[in-house]
Amino acid sequence: VKDFVEKEVWPKNEAIEHKEAGVADGLLRKAGEIGLLMAEIPEAFGGLGLGKVASTIMSEQAGKQGSWAVSYMCHTGIGTLPILYFGTSEQKSKYLPKLASGEYIGAYALTEAGSGSDALAAKTKAVLSPDGKHYILNGEKMFI
């Protein structure tokens, strides 16, 4: 991660800070191609199967850049770990390999118009459908 940040991310820092389209997500995809998004994902799902210590060290190195590091850690943390920890076998098989490779980019939708980023004040609800086969989402999110 240290080498990637120094050689790939820092040279694009100005473009990242000016939010030039495609730069931050392009770097995430490239990080995925070289294995930097898969630390905690088990080998069975295309990851490295490393633990929290290795992942934390990787995040610490990414954190030296700044704003791109937020995207990196959002993807490897809150964008991926809920599926790893709580997903069904089918969900893990479907999403984890693509998150590990950077084909998919993980995100987290928290902010709502009426509650900002206060998770306890969120109004969006997920209700199990009458047939019990899927969830129905009702609400709105912003800044995704």
List the helices and strands and how they pair.
Blueprint lengths: L1 H8 L3 H5 L5 H11 L18 H11 L4 H10 L4 H6 L2 H13 L23 E4 L6 E4 L6
Which descriptors apply to this entry?
single chain, 144 residues, mainly alpha, two-stranded antiparallel sheet, 44% helix
Any overview of this molecule?
This protein has 144 residues and is mostly helical. It has helices at residues 2-9, 13-17, 23-33, 52-62, 67-76, 81-86, 89-101; strands spanning 125-128, 135-138. It is globular and about 50 Å long. The two termini are 25 Å apart.
The top level CATH class name of the largest domain: Mainly Alpha
Main sheet specs: 2 strands, antiparallel
Task: Give the spatial strand order of the biggest sheet.
Answer: 1-2
Q: So what's the overall shape?
A: globular
**Quaternary structure type:** single chain
Report low-confidence residues grouped into runs of 5 or more.
none
> How many structural units, i.e. domains?
2
Number of helices: 7
Number of strands: 2
Average residue pLDDT: 93
**At CATH's second level, what is the architecture of the largest domain?**
Orthogonal Bundle
SSE class: mainly alpha
The portion of residues forming beta strands comes to 5-15%
Radius of gyration from the CA trace? 17 Å
Helix-strand string: HHHHHHHEE
| CATH-assigned homologous superfamily of the largest domain | Acyl-CoA dehydrogenase/oxidase, N-terminal domain
CATH topology of the largest domain: Butyryl-Coa Dehydrogenase, subunit A, domain 1
